[in-house]
Fold:
Amino acid sequence: MKTIQIVKLLNCYIAKLIKNNTTIKQYNNHNGFTIVELLMFMGLLSIMLVILTGIFVSALDVQLESEANSSVQQDGNYILAKLSGDMHKATNISIPSSLGGSATNFQVVVGGVSYTYNVNSDNLELNDGVSADALNSYNSSISNFSATRLGNSGKVEDTLKINFTLTSKTKKNTGFETKDFETTLSLRRQ
Structure:
């Protein structure tokens, strides 16, 4: 009987506690993050990272394109200026030797020294008999170089028509930057 009485007392005590709602304390402490909050944060962070990566890749593409265009244009301008300067100082065109003749190199005489322009391993070289110097930078390569001798038989106008193609070694999304150059240069009248 004692056990029955103890069980009755316990039941009464539990009923009183439930009625007074003192046994179950609900903790509404927000010291941490819920799983939903963490998932939302990770989702937003992922979206931001994708957007920032796209912007970064676009900036790199623009830089590569600009670098390729710039190297081709700078090398082309330098080669044209060097050719023009040497042709204006030259007294004679040795190669190509005949009017209408075309060659993959050319030679002019400047102050008694023969200057030979020819393509060697994708570089336009100027050889003065002592040294050979590359005229284009390591960022570009030259191809399709040709020199055609123009003028008349009286040697009043001794002229060269020079063509070449410069290609950037920097690859952009659309491929390599390529530009064709053409110029016509005459010897100065003496």
User: Anything to note?
Assistant: The first strand starts at residue 92 and ends at 95. The chain has a mean pLDDT of 83. The longest helix spans residues 35-89.
